[in-house]
Amino acid sequence: MPRGPAKKKTEDTSHQSLESKLWATADKLRGHLDAADYKHVVLGLIFLKYISDRFAQRHAEIIREE
């Protein structure tokens, strides 16, 4: 009896559970902000993550050059 589909179903269930928890957390963090206003917060966080990653990458390159 193959066990692949049962494992896939469990992964799908845990994925849905994780997704619902993430949405619930986002709703709590957003508070009373409208979703249209919240996009500015999210875009700012994405930008900060990008800059942080680029800085770490460039810092490592400079260290290797020395």
Automatic annotation (TrEMBL):
One of the Pfam families matching this protein, by short name: HsdM_N
InterPro entries in the record: D12N6_MeTrfase_N, SAM-dependent_MTases_sf, T1MK-like_N_sf
GO MF annotations, alphabetized: methyltransferase activity
Signal peptide per UniProt: none
GO biological process, any: methylation
Record domain N6 adenine-specific DNA methyltransferase N-terminal: where: 18-64
Keyword vocabulary terms for this entry: Methyltransferase, Restriction system, Transferase
Superkingdom of this protein's organism: Bacteria
Family: Belongs to the N(4)/N(6)-methyltransferase family.
Protein name, per record: SAM-dependent DNA methyltransferase
